[in-house]
Amino acid sequence: MPSLGADMERGKLVEWLVKPGDYVHRGDPVATVDTDKTLMDVESFEDGIVAELLVEPGATVPVGTPMARITQTPAAPPPRAAPAVPAAVPASAAPPVSAPPVSAAPPPASAAPPVRRLARQLGVDLALIRGTGRDGAVTRRDVERAAAEPAGRTGRIRSSPRARTVAAELGLDLGTVAGTGPRGAVTEADVRRAAEAAAPPVHAEARRPPAGVPAWPQAEASNGPTEAAPRLAGLRRSIGALMSRSKKTIPHYYLGTTVDLQAAVAWMQAANVQRPVSARLVPAALLLKACALAAREIPEVNGFYAEGRYRPSPAVHLGVAISLRQGGLVAPAIHDADALSLDLLMERLRDVVARARSGHLQRAEMADPTMTVTNLGDLGVESVYGVIYPPQVAMVGFGHIVERPWAQDGMLGVRPVVTATLSADHRVSDGLRGGRFLARLGELLQKPEEL
Amino acid sequence: MNESDARTAVHAAIAQVAPDVDTGQLDDGARLRQDLELDSLDFLALVETIARSTGVDIPESAYAQVGTVGGLAAYVAAHG
Prior knowledge:
The structure holds 2 protein chains of 2 kinds. Chain A has 11 helices and 19 strands. By secondary structure, chain A is of the alpha+beta class.
């Protein structure tokens, strides 16, 4: 279970996206994890074959718990266990957070090879057994006990994780499926066969989610308010804990300035006229790009403060605070935002917002923003002074873009303007440098064609 | 396109962009941003969805006319 944010202590495995025997590449999503804040995809840290899934869907485990075992080749001896998802690990730029260091991770694959062999013989899925041995290791007795349990007696139907996922996707009750696997276990093939038998082919189309609509929101909707309420409470609690920590440890200072957006808005509108809807820009893309460029010039606002010292980040990974429609917010990163063209930045922004709302953010996106931007403008407020996400050292806020009387060169006109604010960490910078950042941001927005 | 088809298309697009909105209860005066809490990206997705389903491309210069559910339906009806 990797750390998916500075405040994360544990995560709940929602589903496996792979099954034993699958070949995975480094970076492939392997599981969906619920962090209290949101659902997120966790990726594999290495290439290889999934040998074993160690955590059962629905289980909540601390950060650092091995979740699966991946072997380099199918022929590799199983005892050479390599954790699929090593403990803790914000990308190289990130400082150590609350997660335990890698070396402290408990030994993975906690079942001795003979026990494993026995489990295979008896057709018992080790991932489904809670070990009673040392450090939670699965013992021979555990396996025998599991094998002796008649399927279904305990309410659990023998099945592969993949079969459960597919059954859930197809809305099929596993109890109604006849298993053909070891000891009557329900396999993926069984589920698919049962689903086809249950639904006449005419309806095959209807079972598929409509194009463009991710499967998750539907799944959540079907869970109804009973699931949503505790989930929201958990989200509120974890945001509260993180913000309390921020306010207790970070001496914030706040600056604000009004930026003339006449040039930026006019340039954007002219660009959008030529474009199909799908390629249109929104003002937020320009604001984010200007922010990323200014952050590159003023390193005191872009990096991490941990263990009593500040490390500026050479890369600008811009966190974007995204409100979730069901409540709460997340702030995943747009990587290397300073180096992206506006079009690409816009594309990434749309992508990350869509995935944040459908629960498919990736681990790295949550773990490593170097600075965060909040944009409450769409809801009509004129200014927002944000709370810094530790271990970051700055939060930039943009309000609503409004038309205001604007005096310049002795003339008065009506222009679109925005209030840009900076909340920054006094341990790292003073108002002078913070002010420089906002001034640069304003200057960059006067030349939108260069963004 | 007649008003009723346009309204149906608008409701369907809203349901797709903001699945939590109960489109059965929508009245024409509902404001997309303030009442339905669509942000600028949601709004863009809505405009895109409507362009796909009805063929009506709402230019940025017309955004001010389509701030409400009723305004959006009227625009689609007039241009579809």
